Amino acid sequence: MKKSMVSLITVGLLFSSGSATWAHPSKQKKVEYVALGDSIPAGMTPYGNYDESYPDMLKDMFQRSNTKLKDYDNFSVSGYSSEQLKDDVENNSTIRNELREATHITITIGANDLFQKLLSDPSTAQQGIDAASSNLNDILQMIDELNPKANVYVMGYYNPFAYYPKEVQNFLVPLSDTLNHEIEVRAIENGDTYVPTAYVIDPEFEKYMPNPEDNHLNVKGYKVIAKEFWKVMKKDR
């Protein structure tokens, strides 16, 4: 009886040990996130200061998910045009090195190209859109050459002219829509993901863009944008 009991215990221990050996815990996926763009991903608020940006919020979302956030870099600069970002992606060694290692990249660029033309000569607004479209295409192609495996997400803008009189918006909003269309086309052509934001921000623009004298979002608005990005980014972790 004792020998039988010892045999059973021994067999049980073997199977127990074997089960522990065979059951491999799921490995955490490593994420390296790089954000590029203008004042929106930089976190500019409607009152001229900086607060938590949508990339900062995405960083937190990665940390709370079943991933290991290995690195996070936000190279966004207020006032940046697509030409300036293109120059960074082409010539800035620090940014290029981070892009090579990135698993996820977000880009918000193009609005300042349009705004600069509107401020200097509104009749040349389309030139700003054309420049943004061409430069974005170059940016996405360069990123693909540096890191073809990276998941790249490009943001479409909300309506920054929501407080303007209707007759002024009749001229400006179609330009903003055209810019978004070009951004979407360039993203799709390069195999990247377009992330629209107008449909979630515009219906409640006063809530998210509370200063009629400034078209930047508050933290609540950036949180809404972060959630729009996360809807697609969480699938690519």
Automatic annotation (TrEMBL):
An MF annotation (GO) of this entry: hydrolase activity
Protein name (Swiss-Prot/TrEMBL): Bacillolysin
Matches recorded under SUPFAM superfamilies: SGNH hydrolase (SSF52266)
Domain SGNH hydrolase-type esterase as annotated: residue spans: 35-224
EC number assigned by the record: 3.4.24.28
Alphabetical list of Pfam families matching this protein: Lipase_GDSL_2
UniProt source species: Fictibacillus halophilus
Signal sequence, renumbered to the chain: 1-22
Record carries keyword Nucleotide-binding: no
Keywords noted in UniProt: Hydrolase, Signal
